[in-house]
UniProtKB/TrEMBL annotation:
Keywords of this entry: Amino-acid biosynthesis, Aromatic amino acid biosynthesis, ATP-binding, Cytoplasm, Kinase, Magnesium, Metal-binding, Nucleotide-binding, Transferase
Entry's EC annotation: 2.7.1.71
Keyword Transcription annotated: no
Reactions that this protein is recorded to catalyse: shikimate + ATP = 3-phosphoshikimate + ADP + H(+)
GO terms of molecular function: shikimate kinase activity
Gene name in the database record: aroK
InterPro entries in the record: P-loop_NTPase, Shikimate/glucono_kinase, Shikimate_kinase/TSH1, Shikimate_kinase_CS
Cofactor: Mg(2+)
Lineage per the UniProt record: Bacteria, Bacillati, Cyanobacteriota, Cyanophyceae, Oscillatoriophycideae
Species of provenance: Limnoraphis robusta CCNP1315
Protein name per its UniProtKB record: Shikimate kinase
Cellular compartments annotated: Cytoplasm
Gene3D superfamilies referenced in this protein's UniProt entry, alphabetically: P-loop containing nucleotide triphosphate hydrolases (3.40.50.300)
């Protein structure tokens, strides 16, 4: 697997509570990679919690800092990056994410709700109807998440270890498909010349 990945970063995307942090940490052990969480970096850089940041500086300022953090991670290799749930919203972020392999953890709103019940650290869920809010956000974001290289559907019975091993199984299939495309593209001019 490490030979196949050649040190490229893995970017985990998905809704808040999808398991990016939990599964990301498991993946680093398996791959000998380092773990980075963009939300944690933002918290450190800003010197305040995500909730405080949203309340005092607003979501737009958060998104700007999030992009800045992501852009700096591209310079590094062998990282598993757990991204913030909304990282997919900015087009420019996709340019950074595409430096590595993008893995979408797709979890139903009902399962997310179960996991996040009582959690007060996600500002976008401080709402009268958090399940309805989750459903709404997922509907808006699905087309963006679906642009990932790998989609992993996570069911209620999948443990974090199972999710990790599903990801590790899927990665070679996309990497091989990509290298096939590249070799076909580079062999094309040659064939043209012979014709
Ligand atoms: N496969 C799983 N099955 C059951 N619970 C899980 C699974 N993966 C993660 N969890 C639990 O769900 C909660 C959210 O997980 P985690 O913090 O890893 O999500 P996240 O995607 O990093 O969220 P955020 O975007 O808000 O940082 C945690 O309590 C975690 O223990
Ligand atoms: O889904 C979102 O927009 C967010 C998810 C979290 O990871 C944090 O980045 C923040 O709470 C915003
Ligand atoms: Mg997280």
């Amino acid at each position: 697997m490490n030979d196949l990945l050649r040190g490229i970063n893995l970017y985990l995307i998905g809704m808040m509570g999808a398991g990016k942090t939990t599964v990301g940490k498991l993946l680093t052990k398996q791959l000998g990679y380092r773990f980075i969480d963009t939300d944690e970096v933002i918290t450190q850089v800003a010197g305040q919690s995500i909730n405080q940041f949203f309340a005092e500086q607003g979501e737009e300022a958060f998104r700007t800092l999030e992009s800045q953090v992501l852009s700096e991670l591209c310079a590094h290799q062998r990282l598993v990056v757990a991204t913030g749930g909304g990282i997919i919203l900015k087009r420019t972020n996709w340019g950074y994410l595409r430096h590595g392999l993008i893995v979408w953890l797709d979890v139903s709103p009902e399962d997310l709700y179960q996991r996040l019940q009582g959690d007060t650290t996600r500002p976008l869920l401080q709402h009268d109807n958090p399940l309805g809010r989750l459903q709404e956000i997922i509907e808006q974001r699905k087309p963006f998440y679906a642009e990932a290289d790998v989609k992993v559907t996570v069911t209620q019975d999948d443990t974090p270890e199972q999710v990790m091993s599903n990801i590790l199984e899927l990665i070679p299939t996309v990497l091989k498909a990509a290298s096939k495309k590249t070799s076909q593209a580079t062999s094309q001019p040659f064939e043209d010349e012979q014709n």
